[in-house]
Description:
Elements: E1 20-24, H1 27-47, E2 52-56, H2 63-76, E3 83-87, E4 89-92, H3 102-109, E5 121-122, H4 133-146, E6 152-155, E7 177-180, H5 183-190, E8 202-205, H6 208-213, E9 217-221, H7 227-235, E10 253-258, H8 266-269, H9 281-295, H10 304-309, H11 313-319, H12 322-334, E11 362-367, H13 372-386, E12 390-395, H14 405-421, H15 427-442, H16 451-472, E13 479-481, H17 499-512, E14 516-520, H18 529-544, E15 554-558, E16 572-576, H19 578-589, H20 608-625, E17 633-640
Amino acid sequence: MFTSTIDTATEFEKRFEKINTHVFDNSANASKAVAQQIAALIKEKQSQNKICVLGLATGSSPKSLYAELVRLHREEQLSFKNVITFNLDEYYPMKAESIHSYVRFMNEQLFDHIDILRENIHIPVGMLAKNDIADFCNQYEDQIEKAGGIDLQILGIGGNGHIGFNESGSLQNSKTRLVALDHSTRIAASKEFEGLKNTPRTAITLGVHKIMEAKRVILLAWGEGKSAIIVKAVEEGLTNLVPASFLQEHQHVDFVLDKEAASKLTRINKPWLVEEVIWTDKLISKAVLDLAISLEKPILMLTDADYIENGMSDLLAQMGPAYDINIRIFNKLQNTITGWPGGKPGADDSKRPERALPAKKRVLIFSPHPDDDIISMGGTFKRLHEQGHEVHVAYQTSGNIAVADDEAIRFAKFITDYNEAFGISCDEAQSIYNKSFDFLKTKEIGGIDIPELRKIKGIIRRGEARATSHFVGLPDSQIHFMNLPFYETGAIEKNPLGAEDIALTIDLIEQIKPHQIYAAGDLADPHGTHKVCLDAVFEALKQIKHKDFMKDCWLWLYRGAWQEWGIDEIDMAVPMGPDQVIEKRFGIFKHQSQKDGVVFQGSDSREFWQRAEDRNRETAELYDKLGLAHYAAMEAFVKWEY
Ligand code: F6R
């Protein structure tokens, strides 16, 4: 049915799963496969002269699916004339013409580009009088029934397991209704609404009952951020705390996942529990560290019984006793710790993460936004510079959408006040200020700024990045602002990576000829800026890796503000003492526009410096718990073969 490129798991290996899952190498290929299913259904119905009723979702997950459906319409003449659609939900209250409405979303992503008849489109109305909502919801369900029921329902899944806006606690027989949105849902949506205070509190959603009545359901989930809730929905018990788990009782449901969203399924995360595995070094580390963490024991305290009782007796049989395996993993982890991220000159480097030579390396740190370098690897950044390496930092994007409007206007006013104070006459500065000020008076929440404001916001972030790099000790000649064009849309939605982005990346690498490249290895959000920036680096390296100077160049990945590497993945851990932690904090403080609550807060209410400190401390504590030395903090890196 689904042809997936990487999923060869047998039914036996899938035995922990209560829902049919299909794992694809990426969301684009997964979306193509789902689009094929939809196209086949539409055509089958066409051949029978019947209508095809589709239940549709919004959010980031179905975007690539809709793009593929549009392509099938344009290039392969797939017609939607026999299609009737019912969307799952709409915020309430919400004007149809608002940039935030699901009406607008669906038109932009799908309906405006296909030949569906307008009268066949149904989306809950966001501007009803409160008293009319119940009637409307009943009619919505009647309309679905009249159309013959939903043939295929497309779903996304919320971080809390919601389907539609049926939040945790929804009943399995819930009807279409007005619901209060969960705090976590509002936080996830708040980046579109520039903050929680502007984010709707309620929505109208199709109930679980009607979703369960759909003849077929396909749920899409992409990215590591969805991996935890996917395991809960697929492998754990049916519970109204995770409404997606209700689908375990549906007769014809498929979960379509990319490999990151599937990464916590038992068959993928702990394959030794579902099948006989070949015990590679990587797998041994993963299994042993996992065992030590789950039993809360230092590695060297694990016993034969621990291995046997936790599904690892074959490892014990092949490589035991436990003492030998423990020592091996302990040493391996020990060897990841180094205070010399650029290599220790004159030392035996056979067991160190980095080469000793050349003693003075050229280092290129790619920072997706202007503050990722200091937030994610500030301690290492400073150490590399202090240990005499030629450190360059490259800010990949301007980061200009993440500056608050009042901050931007304050700077514009500063310029006019400055001019006035020093008797500088500059009409241009005054008119930029006036124009920006007037624009902000009528700006819609989440609306796109005029170019002047975007420029001002970019300059603010550039100044902050420069201040951080100066704080670390770099001269201007080693600070590079790339302003990659893919980012410059003025909106949350960015353009796809283009040839110019890659060319700029190649140019810089060729100019510096680094021995080490550091890049943000965030794979959590497949649509996020960090991933696009990483793809730019990967693509550039692919194109130039045959060049002579590249033979000497190692790629190290760090993780951005949102998550840390798994302990089994870490190849280099750079420890920091208490003073270095404070120093890093001051480096982060240079980013004043990102302090005290940022424009795009995400689901974490801590400030960036707090997240960085917590995370670096947690990594150090984990090393300690596993029986290694106890440092104040640690920054973690993965060596990436390209
Ligand atoms: C959208 C909807 C929601 C989303 C879910 C996932 O119509 O009802 O259930 O599917 O919140 O959102 P994304 O795909 O943005 O992660």
